[in-house]
Design goal:
Elements: E1 12-17, H1 21-29, E2 35-40, H2 47-56, H3 62-71, H4 76-83, H5 98-108, H6 113-124, E3 130-133, E4 139-145, E5 150-152, H7 154-159, E6 164-171, H8 181-189, E7 192-195, H9 200-208, H10 211-219, E8 223-227, E9 231-233, H11 242-253, E10 260-264, E11 281-284, H12 289-293, E12 298-302, E13 305-308, E14 311-314, H13 316-327
Parallel strand pairs: 1-2, 1-7, 2-3, 7-8, 8-10, 10-12
Antiparallel strand pairs: 4-5, 4-6, 9-11, 13-14
Helix pairs in contact: 1-3, 1-13, 2-5, 5-6, 8-10
Length: 339
């Protein structure tokens, strides 16, 4: 693999999030000569991850599995085995990915916990960078809605069909959720912090609501970049503009901590999206340049759109190229509108 030389010491980039968007960015960053740390949410309670979490009380492994594969230098066949998901007619293993089972087994061995298990697995999988679970114990995502009601559990919150006011996390063991010191050190020493792309309330904010993670992100000297979603999301960000996404992040951390926002301004072709397959996506996020600038953000607006399989995604290569350019730009630089 050819790495691009940035003519400097390896810049330190910390990417925080979860879901399907995180591996897209990490796969792109993996092509560059940068020191990557992925901080991965551990508040997922759905799918194979949720079943494993309920039965053996470990951190849900699904997002961690996908991140490990994105940063692995193993031969492709080994990655495919790690990602293989058993068919639904295999009753005992139905729906489980092999990688999820391996992560769960390692975390249970010798009571080492998920953090140490992932570090050992990172070595075995020849990971180029660092993969850190946001917490060593499973977390529960809690939400209060604008009607005053509350719910616990990421999947329940998304399915409630209500407008979320704010979210917070609690630990299944009753202790105050905290990230390992390695996570905090990576954030404080970073040149660039990248949030997203991913579900605002259920992939990004669960990490930032861990008190020492949120504090580190507020205090770091790194440039904090938010990659705004292209589509609004059912049960989370219905009718949100890009400025409202940023407003929610800033409000949760109590200050305007987002330095730069990457927003897609390329229109999604009408009737392209398969709304049965991607039923959680509603409409394209509206662009509000004035609302973003009022929050002190530098705004990078461009065509970050990738259309594939009747779905709408970020173009990982285009996004990462912009992240690399930002490493060489002073933060006082004003992008204005680039489209």
């Amino acid at each position: 693999m050819t790495h691009i030389n940035l003519n400097r010491n390896r810049p330190k980039i910390v990417v925080i999030g979860g879901g399907t968007g995180l591996p897209v960015i990490l796969t792109g960053l993996h092509q560059y000569n940068v020191d990557i740390t992925a901080v991965v949410t551990v508040a997922d309670d759905g799918g194979s991850s949720g079943v494993i979490r309920d039965y053996i009380n470990v951190v849900p492994p699904g997002d961690i599995r996908n991140v490990l594969v994105a940063l692995s230098n193993m031969p492709e066949i080994y990655k495919q085995i790690f990602q293989y998901r058993f068919n639904s007619n295999d009753q005992f293993f139905s729906g489980h990915a092999i990688g999820n089972l391996i992560i769960a087994a390692l975390s249970e061995m010798d009571d080492r916990g998920i953090f140490d298990a992932v570090q050992e697995l990172s070595s075995l999988m020849q990971i180029d960078g660092h993969v850190y679970p946001a917490s060593d114990t499973p977390l529960i995502l809690n939400a209060k809605f604008t009607d005053g009601s509350q719910l616990a559990g990421e999947s329940h919150i998304s399915a409630a069909g209500k407008t979320i006011d704010h979210v917070w996390v609690t630990s299944v063991d009753g202790k105050t959720p905290e990230a390992k010191q390695e996570v905090i050190q990576a954030i404080m020493e970073a040149d660039q912090i990248v949030l997203g792309p991913g579900s605002l309330f259920t992939s990004i904010l669960p990490n930032l609501m861990i008190s020492n993670v949120g504090q580190a992100v507020r205090e770091t000297n790194a440039e904090v970049i938010y990659i705004c979603n292209i589509m609004t999301q059912k049960g989370e960000t219905e009718r949100f503009t890009d400025a409202e996404h940023v407003r929610v992040l800033n409000r949760h951390l109590g200050k305007n901590f987002i330095d730069t926002v990457l927003v897609n301004t390329e229109p999604v072709p009408k009737d392209y999206l398969d709304r049965q397959k991607y039923d959680e996506y509603l409409y394209q996020v509206a662009y509000d340049f004035k609302g973003l600038r009022e929050q002190g953000c530098r705004v990078i607006s461009d065509n970050f759109l990738k259309l594939r399989d009747r779905g709408v995604f970020h173009n990982g290569e285009q996004v990462v190229e912009e992240l690399m350019r930002l490493l060489g730009r002073p933060r006082s630089w004003d992008a204005n509108e680039l489209n």
